[in-house]
Amino acid sequence: MSNAWKLMKIMVKMQLSWAGKSSSEKVGYVIMAFALIPFGALILFSLNNLIGSLYDALAPTGNESVILALFFILMFVIFFVTSIGTVLSSFYFAEDVESFVALPFHPYQIVLGKSAVPFLSLYGLNALLLLPVLLFYGLHSSAGLLYYLFAILLWAVTPVIPFVLLSIVLMFLMRFANISKNKDRTKIIVGMFGFIFAIGINVVIRLDSGGGGSGAADLIREQNGLLELVTGFFPTAYFSSIALTQPASLTGVLYLLLMLGLSIGFAILFLTVGQKVYFKGVLGLSGGTRSRFDERKIHKTIKQKPLIYSLWLKEMRIIFRTPAFFTQIVVQSLFFPVFLLVILFMESNTSVASLGSLLTQLEGKKLVLGLFGFTLLAVGMTPASFSSISRDGKSWFNHLHLPIAPQTVLRSKIITAFTLNLLTIAILSFAALFLLQVSFKIWTLWLLLALVTNWVTSIGGLIIDLYSPKLDWTDEREVFKGRFIGLAMLAIEATVFGTLILILWNVSAISGIWVTTGVLLTFLIILIAACHAGLKRLSNKRYYSIH
Amino acid sequence: MIELKSISKSFTGKQAVKNLNLTVPDGKIFGFLGPNGAGKSTTIKMMTGILPIDEGSITINGVDITDYPMEAKHLFGYVPDRSDIFLRLKGIEYLNFIADVFQVSKEVRKEKIDYLTKSFGIYEALDDHIQTYSHGMRQKIVVSGVLLHDPDVWILDEPLSGLDPKSSHTLKEMMREHAERGKIVFFSTHVLEVVEQLCDEVAIINHGRVQFQGNMTEMKQQFQDDDNLERLFLELTENE
Ligand SMILES: Nc1ncnc2c1ncn2[C@@H]1O[C@H](COP(=O)(O)OP(=O)(O)O)[C@@H](O)[C@H]1O
Ligand SMILES: [Mg+2]
């Protein structure tokens, strides 16, 4: 056990150390921490209000336990979902995994060491969310000392079960699904999995809220009736809530002991499964697949292509083949439109569906500006554009000694960002035409706006990235992590387009669909021209000096 | 002919190349010899347009790399000292990309890709991602990329390090053939032995300055006469 302890300390130190973080990154974190203080205060304030009013509403029928249950369920889901990424990268994808496997440790010791950081980081959220909830509930219910004692114990064990369950699921997935033959593909599949999971939860919640509104009233009438309904799938939330609402009773004590026992049991289960299964998922993880060699296939790919197409193809291949890029760029940008699509499908018989006909009744100017704002939401944030240069990392210099004009390289990168957004635009077009039945005229108008906006943001992002690129990374995730470049882009766009919308909205001389569109497009085209000119100047100055 | 005239380059607070003059004649294998950190890679990066030149000028077959970068870059092929090429591409995709850059026709590229990758023994790895290649294989795919477009001037930064003996032999043969056709092979190394085996002419660089330029017999003569060079000689032979 002392070996496991040492291992854990080393791993925590290595993963949490500040060393190797640039000073601007450190400053960024500090600023962020301070910026979060008022935000945190706001959250605490509203949490307190929420719990207070829920308590007052539910206590008369003896259903107040459901408040705690809801938060326990919420924490369970949050812990489960946030652990997907951290556990996978710590257990399987971290660069040090194989070097630890080579050392004389038991698998369970390595698993224990590897889980330290992902597990302990759950306590950050736990302290931020669950702790105040338990405290506020105690205050509102004027609970006794015993409640607070129980609360502390239950608070401490809450992350255990979701973490263990997820880790076990992942360990078996990695072992049996045999997906780990290809490290990259696994990462991509897991990224998609998270995406589908998030949308799935949304669907379930929506389906649920659709049905039986009348039954709820009956349930409220019995004590804890609501609790049993809500915690059907989450027995641990039930146990914890009962233990906390009746701390002085035998039932309460029993449920507390049950929770503590379960947590210990799960921890033991975790180590047992880790001992048996962990190595089987890790071994043979590194390296890609070696495809069977096929001479004809090779010969077929040999043909001459225009340079700009070749460059574009290279960009697309790199994005689609690099897990971090694929999830951050492709999956992220699909999130908004697919989410929207799902909502529209679910609500296809209700008010949203008639939005299409509603649109035509809007005043021309408001309609156009509304569409423009919506477009900005959809294609305004393009990670593909503000990672244009940084994505190349240490291979950037290859563009410099080859006889390719800087303008050609940059253009291929703009086109790449533009193409990736076309997917979003296509999905939204489908939604507009077939689900919302937006008129053809409005759709054409929107499409025009969307394409031009897409062009603007694709260049804009490239300019920002060219201005301060990060080429010196060893892990692709660093291209997006701790760079604040997305934030910078958001701020610039909010300022420029916010001002534009505000001005157009208030100038009464501009009105009607066509005039507003005309003015907007003129402005955007001028912006594009300005961006191109700026890009040219910036690239003359910076293109050869970034390394 | 490659001409470097009074080249200087500083990195923050440190001068890596100091007032360097060099003339590389046609039809020769030219060795650029010096210990680690001497300034070889820095000089080569300026020759290939990767690093801006602080002072001085460089012409390749009469074309100035700073004033006419596109024209100059069409004249040479460069093998970098590190193999940070586009790792997510497959070998064949990389070669196709390079061939597209230099507008190599379909027939020529097919023939050359076959010939080059077969002689380096990486033909069967062409459909694999470069990421899965060993250091030597990466070196070979880059060299294949350079030879694919048949440039007049070869600029190779430590090209032999990491190659197995057979491929090393193949590359040396190719270098010899290229020089015999009246073209230029310019390569850097920190191994004296390689220079003795291979070069027609050599320049020795240390601390960013050229210490010597001449042919092999002159070099041996100088090593005996000059104390400084003798010390350098020891350093270079102890290296490997
Ligand atoms: N990007 C850089 N920033 C700072 N110093 C550098 C950089 N590149 C090279 N140097 C320094 O310049 C000197 C020459 O390096 P280099 O040309 O790579 O030597 P070598 O002859 O081994 O190829 C070394 O002292 C090196 O530390
Ligand atoms: Mg070097």
TrEMBL record, chain A:
* Transmembrane keyword on record: yes
Protein name, entry field: ABC-2 type transport system permease protein
Native organism? Halobacillus alkaliphilus
Print the keywords alphabetically: Membrane, Transmembrane, Transmembrane helix
What residues form the membrane-spanning segments? 27-47, 67-94, 115-139, 145-174, 186-205, 253-273, 324-346, 366-386, 414-436, 442-464, 484-507, 513-535
Keyword hit for Cell division: no
UniProtKB/TrEMBL annotation, chain B:
Q: SUPFAM superfamilies, from UniProt? A: P-loop containing nucleoside triphosphate hydrolases (SSF52540)
- Kindly state which keywords UniProt assigns to this record, in alphabetical order: ATP-binding, Nucleotide-binding, Transport
Does the keyword Magnesium feature in the UniProt annotation?
A: no
InterPro entries, sorted: AAA+_ATPase (IPR003593), ABC_transporter-like_ATP-bd (IPR003439), ABC_transporter-like_CS (IPR017871), ABC_Transporter_VariousFunc (IPR051782), P-loop_NTPase (IPR027417)
Q: Which domain of life is it from?
A: Bacteria
| Classification via SMART domains | AAA
Task: Note the PANTHER family from the entry.
Answer: ABC TRANSPORTER ATP-BINDING PROTEIN ALBC-RELATED
Know the name of this protein? Answer: ABC-2 type transport system ATP-binding protein
Q: Identify the species of origin.
A: Halobacillus alkaliphilus
